[in-house]
Amino acid sequence: xxxxxxxxxxxxxxxxxxxxxxxxxxxxxxxxxxxxxxxxxxxxxxxxxxxxxxxxxxxxxxxxxxxxxxxxxxxxxxxxxxxxxxxxxxxxxxxxxxxxxxxxxxxxxxxxxxxxx
Length: 117
Fold this sequence. Notes:
Radius of gyration: 26 Å
Oligomer: single chain
Shape: rod-shaped
Number of helices: 3
């Protein structure tokens, strides 16, 4: 990639990361809502007489398909975000390396010109 292309690529990745953060927040909100619904249903369940029964019921409800799927989706989106962060970091580092190589090249040319004079 040419040096002039790096800023656009970094901006593209940052926008993609922003969108991924939005997806993560939506998934987290869904999981939070499910947990709140579970806690609400347990709190108002008159059949649950003690803390042990409430804990067991909560564990049972957390194993339901919708909770498992929502948690799995959240983890998948978090993993995608981590991959994007890694890719963005790589491109930024490559940009820095390219700039350093160009600076080195300029310094070597200046040194050669100074020696020739």
